[in-house]
Amino acid sequence: MNSISSTHQADSNPAQAPSIAVLIPCLNEEKTIKQVVQEFKTELPGATIYVVDNDSTDNSVAEAQEAGAILMTEKRRGKGYVVQTMFQKIDSDIYVIVDGDGTYPASKVHDLITPIRDDEADMVVGSRTTETSSIFHPLNRLGNIFYQYVINFVFGTRLSDILSGYRCFNRKFVKGLPLFVTGFEVETELSIKALQRGYRIAEVPVALRPRPEGSHSKIRIVNDGVKILWTILALFRDYKPLTFFGGLGVLLILLGLIPGGIAVYEFLETGLVLRFPSAILSVGIILSGMLLIAVGLILHTINRRFQELEYYIRLFINR
């Protein structure tokens, strides 16, 4: 697959500035996409602006082209597909990804780029929750807080914004992170996989602006919310199998002790097992819990070995 490159040919100047690619996913954003492209062209005159259209049915394509963006197309509907296409096909030193709805200020892009340019971070997230002036829909704010606490609790982190669509990456991150989800849960996958692979993450406060009149969010709160939660659970299972299966196993063992304890108490009192089915059920639940713990231990060992293999592969690629 041929790549679209924004990397200028190297010359004899060792201080040559790194190339920057601004990646804008777009689905029916004719009200805002032109303004977004123009704002980033103003802030980053040396950057290459890409708009990846996700099979829009309005005038988004014409607006993006009129603004001077390089147009790409991803026919498979879903933001995850768009991000995968951008990461695979576009070459640059620094990548900025921003939604095409006009809610993220282009003026903050320099704050996102600086930690990447100074090699202080691999991914910088524009955090909307640390900026008090951010304009949030109440349900979106509630959902973001919920997922933030879930991920921070499960993975032991202190991230403040899991779902931000305004991020900056270095080339190592973009080309080294496999992405598989297809929808709006892609930000969750980016955050969790960055944590588990040991990438350096920084956050920059960003004030979320209101959508202009006539522009509508593509997020389906219930449907996409369930997908995001499922993604968190699936990545929790994949990256922390001992905690996931071990926790379920301990829970089953504790549940199994309830009918088992009752059966033992009755046997001590009467010398008879009056609730034989309960005793059998208890043994079955406890054995299932022990099996889950064993599965967790096995998968944990396999996961550690794959982490070591991935480490050596990275060393080989980056030589």
Describe this structure in words.
With 319 residues, this protein is of the alpha/beta class. Helices cover 52% and strands 12% of the residues. The chain has ten helices and nine strands. A seven-stranded mixed beta sheet has the order 4-3-2-6-8-7-9, sandwiched between helices. Strands 1-5 form a two-stranded parallel ribbon. Helix 1 (33-43) packs parallel to helix 2 (60-67), helix 5 packs parallel to helix 8 (221-239) and helix 7 packs parallel to helix 8 (221-239). The longest helix has 42 residues, at 276-317. It is elongated, with a radius of gyration of 25 Å. Residues 7-14 have low confidence and may be disordered.
At a glance:
The chain has 319 residues and is an alpha/beta fold.
